[in-house]
Amino acid sequence: MSGTLAGQLTIAAQNDIIIIIIGNTQYGTFPGGTDVLGLVANNDVIINHPVNSSGVNQAGSLTNPRVDAAILALDHSFYVQNWNRGAPLGNLTVNGVIAQEFRGAVGTFSGNPPVIRTGYNKDCTYDTRLKYLSPPYFLSPTLSAWQRISYSEIKPTATP
């Protein structure tokens, strides 16, 4: 996946979405315009980061990639494959939003102040257009099938 999106698109998967970045995935006009990309997976949304058996970055490991998208990992995470192996690759820039069940790893850090050791440093910017502009057929968290059918207040037990 790479290139410039001119329009509106949602990519959905019953299992995982693996993003093999060979270049930046960005909007034709950002921060303005109406270009918008949605990535929805029942499980994980994964950034491909190939390494060999010795843990060395391989062809396809992109330095400072950029992804403009609304990312939704329903049951798992948004993360980078082999996040704890290979040389540091700079910033993974996400312009949009990330919603996930569990926070996924993108790299490792050590020292004081922390210095990136493997993978990426995550650099996220919320795309404020997503307040009113949604990718086509993207799930709306405010229009879900969930509803409250009962509730109760639990009173604390008395302490001795």
Question: Would you give an account of this structure?
Answer:
By secondary structure, this protein is an all-beta fold. It has one domain (3-143). The protein is built from no helices and 11 strands. A 6-stranded mixed β-sheet has the order 2-5-7-9-11-10, with no helix packed on it. A 3-stranded parallel β-sheet has the order 3-6-8, with no helix packed on it. A two-stranded parallel sheet has the order 1-4. The model has no long low-confidence stretch (mean pLDDT 84).
Helix content: under 10%
The secondary-structure element order is EEEEEEEEEEE
Q: Compute the CA-based radius of gyration.
A: 19 Å
Count of beta strands:
11
Based on CA inertia axes, which overall geometry fits?
Answer: globular
Mean pLDDT: 84
Low-confidence stretches: none
The total tally of domains equals: 1
Biggest sheet details: 6 strands, mixed
Structural class designation: mainly beta
Termini gap: 62 Å
Number of helices: 0
Strand order of the largest sheet: 2-5-7-9-11-10
The fraction of residues in strands falls at: 35-45%
Topology, element by element:
Layout: E1 3-5, E2 8-13, E3 17-19, E4 25-27, E5 36-41, E6 45-47, E7 66-73, E8 78-80, E9 88-100, E10 107-110, E11 115-126
Parallel strand pairs: 1-4, 2-5, 3-6, 5-7, 6-8, 7-9, 9-11
Antiparallel strand pairs: 10-11
Summarize the structure.
The protein has strands spanning about 5, 10-15, 15-20, 25, 35-40, 45, 65-75, 80, 90-100, 105-110, 115-125. It is an all-beta fold.
